[in-house]
Amino acid sequence: MTDLDIARQFLAQHPDVTTVELLLCDLNGVIRGKRIERDLLEKVFSHGFYLPGSVMSLDATGATVEEAGQGLDIGDKDFLCRPIASSLTLVPWHQNGDRAQVLCTMFEQEGDPYFADPRQILVKAIERFEQLGYIPGVALELEFYLVDLQRDERGQLQPPLIPGTDRRMTSKQVYSLDDLDDYDFFIRDVLETAKAQGIPADTVIAEYAPGQFEVNLNYGNDIMAAADQAVLLKRVIGSVAKNHEMMATFMAKPYIHEAGNGLHMHLSLMDQDGNNVFISEEPTENKLIQHAAAGLLDLADSSVAFFCPNLNSYRRLAPGAYAPTSKTWGFDNRTVAVRIPAGDPQATRLEHRIAGADANPYLAVTCLLAGVVEGIVNQMEAPPAVEGNAYEQEHPRVPDNQRDALRLMEVDPRILSWFGEDFVAMYQACKWAEVRLFEHQITEMEYELLLPYV
Questions:
Q1: Of the candidates 118, 90, 114, 117, which has an alpha carbon nearest to the alpha carbon of residue 102?
Q2: In 3D, which of 29, 214, 19, 248 has the Cα closest to residue 118?
Q3: Which residues are CB-contacts of 195 (< 8 A; sequence separation ≥ 6)?
Q4: 152 torsion bin: left (phi>0), alpha (psi -120 to 50), beta (else)
Q5: Architecture of domain 127-419
Q6: CATH architecture observed for domain 3-116
Q7: Which residue spans of the chain are classified as CATH 3.10.20.70?
Q8: What is the pLDDT of residues 395-422, one digit of tens each?
Q9: Fewer CB in 10 Å around end: N or C, the chain?
């Protein structure tokens, strides 16, 4: 069927739908867009719709960053948006069943991809990755916290009350089944809602801190679908939490003394017969794995600004907090940046662990593909695989602040090649604006420690 046929069939199957949400993922991974009435859906599928390109150059407050050049400098120009037919689905958290949604992507009015749309960046990256000739296996994992809508007596975040009790999760019961039981109502709702939207989320575990969970997406061969699903799953989790009078946050480090939220990306490679080319008796001795790991580590300095897009992101990169701080790799080791998980040899894969859950999935996956391609094509040599606690060893470190990360990004010609000079310039403008926004604040601690004494 054509895309228009898909839209018509959907409307026929769901006569109660009155409103459709047109979703667009911005630079920060935030969903933007508009709502239309049912009668306009066929027109949108036939001709598209328009939004200002400046929607892709917003800061953390949602304001246009004029220095990025996509706002008033070009008259706040409109760009063509087209729906992705395969993503058209109901919105189950609206109980009356009258709402649908569809993910969209942005183009120039002449039909060329809009350089500032993160999804279009990944489209081009996939085209380059496909030149390797391998079939990918890809899966993403997202960590998040459930947070009470009410702050504690000190004005700080706190885990939500366990339903039917006056208790909150307070201990680090990693993989606790009891914790999963306490929040079974929420977990079931997330998994059922994801299934209703065609998002293959299949596992939820209690993570390393009170109120922290991880949700896994199934493995698949479609890289773009994996990124789309991650974007939409975050929306599902946030919306389901809101329905249960809680907040779900993918902020990289919401609690300074607890583990941060990561976006872990898994990648394997198969030949045209479906054989996993990463399989070896000793995975760290596999040459393709070595080249891929080497490329990812070599690109780490200049890609951290995508993996860690906010000032808060770098609070997560702390020793002992299960987030990597060094350019390391190894087998079955959660202290390194690029991990080869243990398990069935047929499922041998790389797990990239630098990105925070606050990263834009399209940009993070682009960095993953870029590192693997650069490593394999150039047959890069990886450093020795790390055994033991990488935090207690001497290894080259990843940038631990946003200023260094942004400076390293803009001087790497490989980043300019994979993302495009215009996109990198826009990203830089937006993120430097955020640096200024957050750093031009005086904190309560500064007043407390300095005001009376200096």
A1: 90
A2: 29
A3: 201
A4: beta
A5: 2-Layer Sandwich (3.30)
A6: Roll (3.10)
A7: 3-116
A8: 999 999 999 999 999 999 999 999 999 9
A9: C
